[in-house]
Specification:
By secondary structure, this protein is mostly helical. 52% of the residues lie in helices and 0% in strands.
Length: 103
């Protein structure tokens, strides 16, 4: 087996200053579901995002599940297979922000 030299590890995708794409940017949820949500839902999501790093992991996960359940009940949206609950919430918030800008 050949060795991988350090020069092989520095490709264009790992260039200094290149942003690493966030997982939620790869998700696109159905617009019909996003349209069922309100600005108040976005405020709940933003509040969670602003405080989540200050929470214990257990509290953070429990709150994310509660918020996701409420979003799902209101919108009919489901987290895509393989996506975490927080990635689902981030994708929902991103699309809800985009929808609000269009209105």
């Amino acid at each position: 087996m050949g060795r991988v030299g350090l020069s092989n590890l520095h490709g264009a995708s790992l260039a200094p200053g290149s942003p690493i794409p966030e997982p939620h940017t790869a998700l696109t949820l159905p617009t019909a579901g996003i349209a069922k949500l309100a600005v108040s839902d976005l405020e709940v999501l933003e509040g969670f995002f602003s405080r989540r790093l200050d929470m214990s992991l257990a509290t953070r996960q429990a709150l994310a599940v509660r918020i996701a359940s409420a979003i799902q009940a209101k919108s009919g949206l489901e987290p895509p297979a393989g996506a975490s609950i927080e990635t689902f919430l981030e994708a929902t918030a991103r699309q809800l922000r985009d929808l609000a800008r269009l209105q």
